[in-house]
Amino acid sequence: MPKQPPTPLVLAGVSYLGYLCWSLIATRSVVVGGVHLVLSAVLFFFVMRGSRMAARILAALCGLSALVLFVAAVATFQAQPRAAGTLTVMSGLLALFVAYLCRSDAMKRFQERSAASSSP
Questions:
Q1: Local confidence band at 120 (pLDDT 50, 70, 90 cut-offs)
Q2: Fewer CB within a 10 Å sphere, N or C end of the chain?
Q3: For the segment 35-89, what is each residue's pLDDT rounded down to a tens digit?
Q4: Closest among 51, 82, 59 to 12, alpha carbons compared
């Protein structure tokens, strides 16, 4: 049985890495954006191969990002309500992704299959 990652995981990975590429181009912050993009791509590579540790690290980092975005949304709500709405949506999407990584049965089955196929 091939160990293909679940479709929602692939869609989330492609969209998140696409967002990071767009952010890197828009802000032209190679040091911060480039490092963020490379680290995220490496984490997603290992998550797509079924690594539980990489999934936990990615979930923790995305959870922290969701929290930071939500705090920024609350802080900017009075001055820029549209920006606060965008930040809230991004925070919610990251929180949903964290919940998927941590609680999804499909994700657990994928990781178990990957662990079983890689053991001697």
A1: low
A2: C
A3: 888 999 999 999 999 999 999 999 999 999 899 999 999 999 999 999 999 999 9
A4: 59
Q: Tell me how far CA of residue 88 lies from CA of 10, 23, 65, 113, 117, in angstroms.
A: 23, 17, 12, 35, 40
d(CA 93, CA 73): 14
CA distance 101 to 120: 26
C-alpha distance from residue 11 to each of 6, 14, 26, 44, 70 (Å): 9, 5, 22, 11, 23
DSSP per residue, the chain = ---PPPHHHHHHHHHHHHHHHHHHHHH--IIIIIHHHHHHHHHHHHHHTT-HHHHHHHHHHHHHHHHHHHHHHHHHTTT-HHHHHHHHHHHHHHHHHHHHHHH-HHHHHHHHHHHHHH--
Q: Do residues 12 and 97 touch, judged by C-beta distance below 8 A? A: yes
